[in-house]
Amino acid sequence: MEQTAEQARQLDHLATTPPPVPSPSPLAAFGMPGFGGPPAPAMPELRPILELEGEAYEDELDALSDWVDDFLLPVYGAEVTTASPWCLQWQEHNDVVAWLHALWLAYQQHKDPEAGLAGMFVWHRDFLTHAMAAIRAPGGPLSACMTSPERPAHRLLPGPPPSVRTEKESEAQAPGPGEYGLAS
Asked: CB-based burial of residue 38 (10 Å sphere; 0-12 exposed, 13-18 middle, 19+ buried)?
């Protein structure tokens, strides 16, 4: 009797319908979250280089300098002219550092096999051409620097002054004549 009861329980268990298995989404193969694919891997926190400080900034600038000196300039540097200036001290131009860092991050993303066969074309078309044109423009951030390899130069041009609104706020927060114990 016990054996028959056990067999009945097994048959009941096998006869119950399993919960429905959702059919895979056609987008599941792309690993898009919420579409039945594997969860997307956690991306490392990327921060613009100018938001980094101390050793983190120095390490990132060293890695960026290696990429610029060993790859970018030998391949895409072209000649230095008044229409396409360069600066041997480009690391001191914060705007140039920011542009080159963004270009380098985009390069790393687009050379990855997951970017597909057209990844590097997209990098050239959408990133390289625009960034280099902006950095090396005749009126760009390096325009006061080297325009001839025979005459190396480096000069940081002053940026715009603070806005009128910022100036007014600074004046409003400044202490009055009697606030420091001075007689008025």
From this structure: exposed
Say how far apart CA 131 and CA 88 lie, in whole Å: 18
CB 66 within 8 A of CB 58: no
Look up the domain containing 97 and give its range. 51-135
Q: Check: pTM over 0.70? Answer yes or no.
A: no
- Could you tell me if 142 and 133 are in contact, meaning their C-beta atoms sit under 8 angstroms apart? no
For residue 104, what is the enclosing H or E element?
helix 94-111
Residue 100 lies in a domain: yes
The pLDDT value given to residue 19: 56
Q: How far apart are CA 38 and CA 28, in angstroms?
A: 7
Spatial distance between the Cα atoms of 114 and 47, rounded to a whole number of angstroms = 22
> Quick check: 184 pLDDT over 50?
no
Rounded Cα distance between 157 and 94, Å, is 12
Assigned domain for 174 exists: no
If you search the block for the tokens 């990132």, which residue do you land on?
Answer: 60
Number of folded domains that form the chain: 1
